Amino acid sequence: MRKGILFDLGNTLVQYFNRNESLFVLEKCLDSVSIFLEKLGISLDYDNIKHRIEKENYELSNHKVRHLEKRLFKIFRLEKLSMTSGVELAICSQFLKPVFPKSKVYEDTLPILSELKSRGYKLGIVSNMPWGSPSEPWKIELQKAGISKYIDNLVFCSDLG
Fold it and tell me: Which residues contact 37 (CB under 8 A, 6 or more apart)?
């Protein structure tokens, strides 16, 4: 019989930010995207941007994922920009840039994962991501944090919808 243990990521293995910091972090994330787009020479339509942010800051009642890249393209009115996976990922990575430096791997995370792995458990992470952000930047962060070497399977909401 196989033994496996599933973990959530945020506030289970790693602390990113508290719920009461959500709006502040969201503002920093959107600022990061704005700066990135302006450096690319993309002129932004800031008319009613706060309204567009508020309009995109919700989750569906059926719990389906609203992907970050689609939200950002609506907020910043980037419909004319070619939506290739490289452009989408770059914009989403910029959005997450303020989140990752705030991260703190809990002091017991790596020792526990190591111990469970040494006992033969299969380990997995099943997690929702802020604003339906893509999994690629999170996977890179898990590698940097030393977590991914213990994990057999990763499932993020943006991968499944």
Answer: 44, 76, 78, 91
4-16+103-160 maps to which CATH number? 3.40.50.1000
Q: Quick check: helix, strand or coil at residue 150?
A: helix
Q: Which of 13, 5, 4, 2 is nearest to 103 (CA)?
A: 13
Q: How confident is the model at residue 1 (pLDDT cuts 50, 70, 90)?
A: low
Q: How far apart are CA 46 and CA 56, in angstroms?
A: 15
**Token pair of 140 as six digits:** 């890179």
Contacts of 43 (CB under 8 A, 6+ apart): none
Give the C-alpha separation, 33 to 45, whole Å.
13
Percent of residues in the chain assigned helix, strand, coil, to nearest 5:
50, 10, 35
| Domain range list for the chain | 4-16+103-160, 19-101
158 CB neighbour count, 10 Å cutoff? 20
Q: Which amino acid is at 79?
A: E
pTM for the whole thing?
A: 0.85
Q: Which has more pLDDT, 116 or 47?
A: 116
pLDDT tens readout for residues 120-149: 999 999 998 888 899 999 999 999 999 999
